[in-house]
Design brief:
The protein is mostly helical. It has 4 helices and no strands.
């Protein structure tokens, strides 16, 4: 079985990162912005795994960094969803622009 070249993996990872960046900067819904951040973190995970496989296959540094990023992303998602739920309960909206205009 042939291996996938590194530049193909990096192209997919770069595309995912910029799709996530586009989604973060163009969406007003907080949940879609959270999903865009998760997409960017996953593209970084793909980079860590790809460079670990092609540059240092005997080491596991990239895999450890990936597991650490997944744990941080899970904690970030839990905190962000709690903030979104709290914002929705108080303002009845999760639109970023509406929430920034409202007075507390």
């Amino acid at each position: 079985m042939s291996e996938v070249p590194l530049h193909h993996i990096l192209f997919v990872s770069t595309a995912l990162f910029f799709i996530g960046m586009y989604g973060f900067f163009t969406r007003r819904n907080m949940i879609t912005m959270l999903m865009a951040i998760e997409l960017m973190l996953n593209s970084v995970n793909i980079n860590f795994i790809a460079f670990n496989k092609y540059l240092f296959p005997e080491k596991m540094d990239g895999i450890f960094f990936t597991i650490f990023i997944i744990a941080i992303a899970a904690a970030e998602a839990a905190v962000a969803i709690a903030i979104i739920i709290n914002l929705y309960r108080s303002h009845k909206s999760i639109d970023v622009e509406e929430a920034s205009e409202m007075k507390y």
